[in-house]
Amino acid sequence: MLHFNEKGYKEGEKGAWLGILTNILLFAIKFAAGVLGRSQAMVADAFHTASDAFTSIGVLIGFKIAQRPPDKHHPLGHGRAESIVAKIVSLILILVGLEVAYHSARVLIAGKMTEPGNIALVVVIISIIVKEMTYRRVIAVSSRIKSLSLKTDAYHHRSDVLSSVAALVGIVGAKFGHTFMDPLAGIVVGAFIIKIGAEAFHAAYDELMDAAPSEEFKGKVRGIVAGVEGVKEVKDIMARKTGIEYFLEVIIGVDATKTVEEGHTVTMKIKRDMFKAMPDVRDVIVHVEPCGASD
User: Taking the model in full, what pTM does it have?
Assistant: First the structure.
């Protein structure tokens, strides 16, 4: 029976819903302010916020799929759905960044620049505050449950903060007569988004390719295993992250005089302690060897 981190998935869903609702509301406000305030940077920022809403929906769907129980075709469960969504979200981020930069560059080259109205200035300040609060909440949840897709979604929120700051600079500059600063800020926004998307893509790639976990994580696992009665030696630890959960393989050394039944009892104790101390561990496979035996 695999261990299931139900609490973690529920927390992840709440984080995704927070992003969805916040982004839908901000998109409507930003788009209206951008049109009424004649701000290219604000309109670009509004569509960036809209993309946030769609990616948050994708993250929510990923969590729903990841919670499905194992079946004949997926004996280890569906946790990788969360990792796949993280990769899709990162690609969307890159595409959005390219579109924002392209649109703003066209406006700058065409010279069709106007001075933004005060409404754009007010809304962009509100957006910075709201999205920074959303980012902090979502990144805290993603760190707690170790969700890459939610972490990528949080980066999307943070990129919205950065784009709003760039839009603010552009709007203020344009109001002082430097109208070129508004579309120029849009180009800067696009660059920010592309950079964040590329970093998120690399992280998703590592997770899907079963990159080794951090030494801190392995150290924690080693400490739990070594603390189990009967374990004389922790020979090796291998781990792969699947969504918000980990699958572990541990090789231990026990007293060579122990029976098979006694060795099995030690493995059961390791699983018990591991699931209790680390709820994000989905399963542990323990290989038992006589202490001192060579590989």
Answer: 0.67
